[in-house]
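Q: Hi! Curious about what DUF5683 domain-containing protein looks like structurally. Here's the sequence.
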Amino acid sequence: MAIQNTSKSNQAPAIKRPLKAALMSALICPGSGQIWLGKKWQGIGFMTLSFVCLAVMMNFAIERAQVIADKILAGEVALEYSAIYAQITQVPDGDMAQISTWITWLFVANWLTSVITAYLVGAKVSA
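A: Let's find out. The predicted structure is below.
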């Protein structure tokens, strides 16, 4: 009696290369799909822009938290949840709000562009 190799039939179908690259850029880090496809510098560009945007957003968040903490220590804001929550949800003053909005949109646009280009590059490489 011959034993047949059924390992192929039990395996799930492999994810296509363009989809895998797009998912890597979407779920792991923008640019990771490009690096996986061999487009090293394109991937590094997407990653660098993402990390710069994240660093700027973190800097804004830390500055804002520091201002609120200083107000609490000075007694301008009560040390209770509702007062602190009111300070956190308040719109930032000046150019800070506009800059943080632009940085956030730049981050989102970079992420989406990374996913789309990873898919397109993957489709081009697979063809």
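A: A fun detail: The mean pLDDT is 88.
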